[in-house]
Amino acid sequence: MDFELSAEQVAIRDQARSVARIEVAARAASIDASAEFDWDLHRRLAEIGFLGLTAPEECGGQRLDTLIWCIVVEEIAKASSTVSNGITLTDGIIHYISTLGTREQRDKYIPPLIRGEALCSFALTEPNTGSDAASVRTTARHEGDSVILNGQKMFISGAAYADHFIVVATVDRELRHNGIRSYIVPREALGLTVGDKLDLMGIRGFGTSPVFFDECRIPASNQLGGNEGFRMVMQGLDGPGRLGAASQAVGLAQAAMESALAYSLERSQFGQLIFDHQTIQFMLADMSAEIEAARLLTWNAAWRRDAGLPFTKEASHAKLFAGDMCVRNVSNALQIFGGYGYSKEYPIERFYREAKIHQIWDGTNQIQRKIIARQLRKEKCRAI
Ligand SMILES: Cc1cc2nc3c(=O)[nH]c(=O)nc-3n(C[C@H](O)[C@H](O)[C@H](O)COP(=O)(O)OP(=O)(O)OC[C@H]3O[C@@H](n4cnc5c(N)ncnc54)[C@H](O)[C@@H]3O)c2cc1C
């Protein structure tokens, strides 16, 4: 594998780095404090071309590879996990619609997402259905040309601002994953209500909310894909889901390490820079090595995806390692700030609150271990 980025990749990375440093970093604290989605910044990302980077050209995308997409997500996440979420969610949704949707659905829904004019949420999790995604209880009743949805979704990123929702529901709970279907539901559909924004510890500016469906009637033509619903949901989680989450975790850990390094070169105790205490140097050295390892796991999975190779195990490796690494290293970076790390004077306090989500969403890290183990068994059985 060639680890050298192309001139085009370097140019895109540098542009993302500069936007993150200048434009995103300037607003990150106020987004966190106000818990409001920054539409202007989201549209700015669209204007630069960072929404729909991997989307097919016929849908208005750039069809770039997953690797450069991961790099852009990492760079933006260095300044704000919340803002980078706009990219990961949008590309995840575009992936679903472009792979599963009809021509009409692609033409209708994808271009406004790429232009940053609309937001679409992905609604899978429910109050009683999290890790066990095949057990969704939201029902979809097909009646002639309509589908009627009933149930509740929980923790839906972007729901407070979304124009549409991709809703995962079941036509028959007895069928477990075989009964799962996806539907595109407009926000204004009668019977759909978005609950109050959840008061979260991090990722606060993304309008994460519950969504309720009470005899919510939509046209049957809003079904996304056929009966392969569950398989497609899982494949989407592998790609934009887990690789996006891993890239965000790498970016956040990198930002935390850079800020701790800078602080350690300014702060003196016992008559010397704290950097000169070997303990601090070793913490920074471990961070640097672990961040690089997480980045390479992520790039490896991205490269496999682009090469058309199986990448389920590799995406879970990346998400698992990057998520755990992020929590550990952002905590260590805060430690280097001592008491100042515990105040809101430095962004490291926000980084610490943002880090934890990377062990939870897109399949918790316990679930990633289950996926990896399942893949190991499959590989072993295939080899026998
Ligand atoms: C900020 C935020 C944004 C989110 N955005 C979205 C979104 O946009 N769309 C969406 O659909 N969902 C979203 N989620 C939901 C998220 O994906 C779920 O919270 C996650 O999948 C875990 O589900 P749960 O919270 O119900 O936990 P549970 O599944 O109840 O798990 C609780 C604990 O048990 C462990 N556990 C469960 N099963 C097993 C097992 N078999 N083996 C070992 N351990 C197990 C878990 O790892 C966890 O530690 C979001 C969540 C948050 C916090």
From TrEMBL:
Provide the protein name: 3-sulfinopropanoyl-CoA desulfinase
Q: SUPFAM superfamilies attached here? A: Acyl-CoA dehydrogenase C-terminal domain-like, Acyl-CoA dehydrogenase NM domain-like
| Reaction(s) this enzyme catalyzes, per UniProt | 3-sulfinopropanoyl-CoA + H2O = propanoyl-CoA + sulfite + H(+)
Keywords tagged on the record = FAD, Flavoprotein, Oxidoreductase
Tell me the organism.
Answer: Rhizobium loti
The Acyl-CoA dehydrogenase/oxidase N-terminal domain covers which part of the protein? 6-117
Q: Where is the Acyl-CoA dehydrogenase/oxidase C-terminal domain?
A: 227-376
Q: What Pfam families does the annotation carry?
A: Acyl-CoA_dh_1 (PF00441), Acyl-CoA_dh_M (PF02770), Acyl-CoA_dh_N (PF02771)
What Gene Ontology molecular function terms does this protein carry? acyl-CoA dehydrogenase activity; flavin adenine dinucleotide binding
Q: Which cofactor does it need?
A: FAD
User: Ranges for the Acyl-CoA oxidase/dehydrogenase middle domain?
Assistant: 121-216
Keyword Flavoprotein on entry = yes
Which family does the similarity line name?
Answer: Belongs to the acyl-CoA dehydrogenase family.
- What InterPro entries has UniProt attached to this entry? Acyl-CoA_DH_CS, Acyl-CoA_Oxase/DH_mid-dom, Acyl-CoA_Oxase/DH_mid-dom_sf, AcylCo_DH-like_C, AcylCo_DH/oxidase_C, AcylCoA_DH/ox_N, AcylCoA_DH/ox_N_sf, AcylCoA_DH/oxidase_NM_dom_sf
Instruction: Reply yes or no: does the keyword tRNA-binding apply.
Output: no
Q: What is its EC number?
A: 3.13.1.4
